[in-house]
Design a protein that fits this description.
The chain is α/β, with parallel strands linked by helices and 305 residues long. It folds into two domains: 8-118, 2-Layer Sandwich (Nonspecific Lipid-transfer Protein, Chain A); 136-300, Rossmann fold. It has twelve helices and nine strands. The two termini are 29 Å apart.
Length: 305
């Protein structure tokens, strides 16, 4: 895809000047193609090519010097990565360590400000959704839409324990199954679990963590989920592993937790992204109420700036 317009050539020339200044000492394997379809850096044999479909992508990268902007631009359709994406880290490493003299930096910034920018409507809408007041109904519908596709679908690409959140790789050559087990045990160690402690898992998914914690650390684990599919799977898993005396699971919203029950440990992995920033105070207040004095809470989630 090429950008076509009366100002295209002018913006391309600006883009080339910026890249010439920023990448003057870069001789790595990554090529760069601008919105006119022509290579500005590297050659056609490069194992990886960063494609700028829009000048706004280059503008954002220069002004913010943040690799996250590259991902955002990709999602917005402003750019693409062709070839071996892993090779891109060579350029990322170069940019991370780059220190430009102030006169050069000033020239680059002035050039970048001259490029057209883009207001990402999707990003603004996403922020509005994240701040949306939380209700039992919209949370239930959101979880059902996301997780109640079918367990067979998730089996196609998750590990054998059906862990949905990111894995932990102490070494790069670990299998997904091994990395997910390492993640489960890492969480348990961070929680400092000891036998017969009570553990609550908010958003327990298919039950991998509660079963792991009970089997390997001897806790009494309880999980809650809003997904009917996950609940049924977790019940079957608990029974098949013979953990009925140590592990329980139920369909329950975290806001409906009984006020008279407290736990030694509480964990939530990849759940609080669903509740919205505006609802964080209530969420953490409920956690505080449900946690025994001196207890530990581990919250794992993904955030942005």
């Amino acid at each position: 895809m090429m950008l076509i317009g009366e100002n295209t050539q002018q913006s391309v020339e600006t883009g080339r000047r910026i890249l010439a200044l920023v990448l003057a000492d870069y001789h790595g394997p990554v090529a760069i193609r601008l919105w006119d379809g022509e290579l500005a850096i590297g050659n056609d044999n490069a194992p990886c090519t960063v494609v700028f479909h829009q000048p706004s992508m280059l503008r954002s990268l220069v002004l913010h010097k943040n690799v996250v902007r590259l991902a955002e631009a990709y999602l917005a359709g402003e750019g693409d990565i062709e070839g071996d994406a892993e090779t891109l880290f060579d350029l990322v490493s170069y940019m991370r360590d780059l220190v430009l003299p102030w006169p050069v930096k000033w020239r680059v910034l002035r050039q970048a400000l001259g490029l057209p920018g883009t207001l990402h409507r999707a990003g603004k809408e996403a922020k509005a959704v994240r701040a949306k007041p939380e209700t039992h109904q919209n949370t239930q519908e959101s979880i059902a839409h996301h997780y109640d596709v079918s367990n067979d679908f998730y089996r196609l690409w998750l590990d054998r324990k059906m862990v949905y959140s990111c894995a932990y790789y102490p070494e790069v050559d670990r299998s997904l199954d091994s990395a997910q087990q390492d993640k489960l045990d890492y969480i348990c160690k961070k929680l400092r679990l000891t036998p017969d402690q009570t553990l609550l898992d908010i958003g327990c998914g298919w039950g991998a963590l509660i079963c792991w914690a009970a089997r390997h650390h001897g806790v009494l684990a309880h999980g809650i989920t809003l997904s009917e599919q996950q609940y049924q799977y977790a019940c079957e898993r608990i029974q098949s592993e013979g953990l009925e005396e140590r592990v329980t699971v139920e369909l329950r919203d975290y806001r409906d937790l009984p006020e008279d029950i407290q736990y030694d440990r509480i964990v939530s992995v990849g759940m609080f992204e669903h509740i919205g920033v505006a609802n964080f105070p209530r969420y953490f207040d409920i956690i505080k109420r449900a946690l025994r004095p001196g207890g530990l809470f581990l919250n794992h989630g993904i955030s942005n700036d």
